[in-house]
Write a structure and sequence with these properties.
Blueprint (H helix, E strand, L loop, with lengths): L1 H30 L5 E7 L6 E6 L6 E11 L5 E9 L4 E5 L17 E8 L12 E2 L3 E7 L2 E7 L3 E2 L4 E10 L2 E8 L5 E5 L5 E11 L5 E5 L3 E4 L9 E8 L5 E7 L7 E7 L7 E7 L7 E6 L10 E7 L5 E4 L8 E7 L2 E6 L8 E10 L5 E7 L4 E5 L9 E10 L7 E3 L3 E4 L3 E3 L3 E2 L14 E3 L4 E7 L5 E5 L9 E2 L2 E2 L3 E10 L5 E10 L3
Parallel strand pairs: 33-40
Antiparallel strand pairs: 1-2, 2-5, 3-4, 3-6, 6-7, 7-10, 8-9, 9-13, 11-12, 11-14, 14-15, 14-16, 17-18, 18-21, 19-20, 19-22, 22-23, 24-25, 25-28, 26-27, 26-29, 29-30, 29-31, 32-34, 35-36, 35-39, 37-38, 39-40
Length: about 525
């Protein structure tokens, strides 16, 4: 009995030993299968073809490599085989999702995670599901504020690698142009719109793979169908003038062929930096490109006034603004009794001035052009030698004329007036028989006088012997056509000037005959 039991235990030990041996052999063989290493996965942006590249297993007796679609990346990674590739070589496999029933989506619709396992002759395989790489999907959309193209992408994921950079690539006429380089922690960026409506982009990731080789992976293609808005070619204040009522008038010129409609006119009363909006305009393509604006009672002598205008996009962002303009200001001063000196500032709203016209009005009457000077002349001396007697007040303004073949604007300065101090000289004697003509008649010599005039001559008894309302008419020494007696006569002169000032002169004059 003991012998039988010993044989039984011996047999059982041998069976256990043999079983352990085979289990050990199986485990040892499975661990010896070296996994393949995925180098990269990528999407061809032109065809949506997916590529997966891997390095061969270092194990012997490898029968095939299996491409696996990782469909669950949660706690327990799950994969489904796509295809078996015979042999054991460094290899690349390309496929389209619409040729494989496993996929219900396109490569440009969602990212695809892929791994590669090595299988031995006896059916054992490496375990490399967690060493997957994932393709990138990109998209493009138009943002409104600001109006740009936003390129977004899913980040490249690869076991054991870190992305160095992402690049935004645009395809134009068969060429690939790098528009922007982004860091590895970015997954979107803004691209400027341009004049092209149809535009195509993809994203390229650069990294070093598990074998130290520089690799690149590209995303699917994305596109937009919206071109950049048409920006204005010009925006300017074409003219600025000071009106007689001290309004400052502007003529703004806008490019209505652009896609922008909102314009603002700005003013500063201090300097060329601190502007405030004074008018907002919305113009349509059917409007005139010229917009007239009047800043009421804005001009104050020797006070600055600066203007500019700007155009805004739909996001209320300033697109373009004009140059700053300020009105030409005129100053007037006495030269001497018979000259007035006119000076004006050198700030024409245009590049070139054709001429400056000098306007003058006398005694607040209708103004007339008295002269003109060429560009770069900013002073004019008005000689009053032949035009002084009746003109006690003279008002001036200067008009700059634009030197342009396409446009002809006139920019007016302010109007400045100067009242000359009147001159009135009354002789104390006259002789109708004198050889000197001016001594034959009694009348005052004058300058810078006009208005209502009256002169009366009285004899010693207070009788009026002569009267006139014409300052240029005088007493010839006769009374009712006969030579008056020599002697002393009284005179009374009254003048009402147009500005309200009154002049009254009383005195005596001696009538003599020699």
């Amino acid at each position: 009995m003991k012998l039988l039991l010993d044989k039984f235990f011996l047999t059982t030990k041998k069976c256990i030993a043999i079983s352990l041996f085979f289990c050990s052999a199986i485990l040892t063989h499975a661990e010896e299968i070296d996994p393949t290493d995925v180098s990269y996965v990528s999407v061809n942006p032109y065809t949506n073809e997916v590529s997966v590249c891997w390095y061969k297993s270092e194990s012997a007796n490898i029968k095939n490599s299996r491409i696996l679609y990782i469909y669950d990346e949660t706690t327990l990674i799950k994969g489904k085989g796509i295809v078996d590739i015979p042999g054991n070589e460094d290899n690349t496999f390309l496929f389209k999702t619409d040729t494989i029933s496993l996929f219900s989506f396109e490569a440009n619709e969602k990212p695809i995670s892929l791994a590669v396992d090595a299988y031995s002759e006896n059916g054992n395989n490496s375990t490399s599901l967690r060493e997957y790489h994932t393709t990138m999907v990109s998209s493009a959309q138009i943002t409104k504020c600001p109006s740009k193209i936003k390129i977004s992408w899913t980040k490249y994921v690869g076991f054991g690698i870190t992305v160095d950079k992402y690049e935004i690539i645009e395809t134009q006429n068969g060429k690939e142009i790098v528009l922007k380089e982004c860091s590895n922690n970015e997954n979107n960026c803004l691209i400027e719109l341009n004049e092209n409506k149809e535009r195509n982009f993809f994203v390229r990731a650069t990294f070093t793979d598990c074998r130290g080789i520089k690799r690149q992976s590209t995303s699917c293609m994305c596109d937009v169908s919206e071109k950049a808005p048409v920006y204005p070619q010009f925006i300017e204040i074409a003219n600025i003038s000071i009106e007689k009522n001290n309004d400052i008038s502007l003529v703004c010129k806008y490019d209505l062929a652009s896609d922008f409609r909102k314009y603002i006119i700005y003013k500063s009363k201090t300097d060329t930096l601190h502007f405030i909006g004074i008018d907002t305009i919305n113009l349509q393509p059917t409007n005139s490109p010229y917009y007239n604006f009047s800043d009421k009672s804005a001009y104050i002598q020797d006070t600055a006034a600066y203007y500019k205008t700007a155009v805004f996009d739909n996001c209320n962002e300033k697109v373009k603004e004009s140059y700053i303009v300020t009105p030409i200001q005129l100053h007037l001063r006495n030269g001497d009794d018979l000259t007035n000196i006119i000076e004006w500032s050198q700030n024409s709203p245009w590049i070139s001035v054709g001429q400056y016209r000098i306007w003058r009005s006398e005694n607040y009457d209708i103004e007339q052009i008295i002269d003109s000077v060429e560009e770069f002349h900013y002073i004019y001396i008005d000689d009053l030698d032949n035009n002084f007697e009746n003109n006690f007040s003279m008002c001036y303004r200067v008009e700059a004329i634009q030197n342009s073949e396409s446009e002809s604007f006139a920019s007016s300065t302010n109007t400045v007036c100067l009242n000359k101090e009147y001159k009135l000289l009354i002789p104390n004697a006259f002789n109708p028989y004198s050889n000197i003509q001016e001594n034959k008649i009694f009348k005052p010599k004058y300058a810078f006088i006009t208005g209502e005039y009256k002169m009366e001559i009285f004899d010693r008894f207070g009788g009026c012997v002569f009267s006139t309302s014409d300052i240029n008419s005088g007493w010839d020494g006769t009374i009712k056509g006969k030579i008056a007696p020599t002697g002393t006569y009284q005179y009374k002169i009254k003048i009402n000037l147009p500005n309200g000032e009154k002049i009254e002169k009383f005195g005596v004059v001696n009538l003599i005959f020699q």
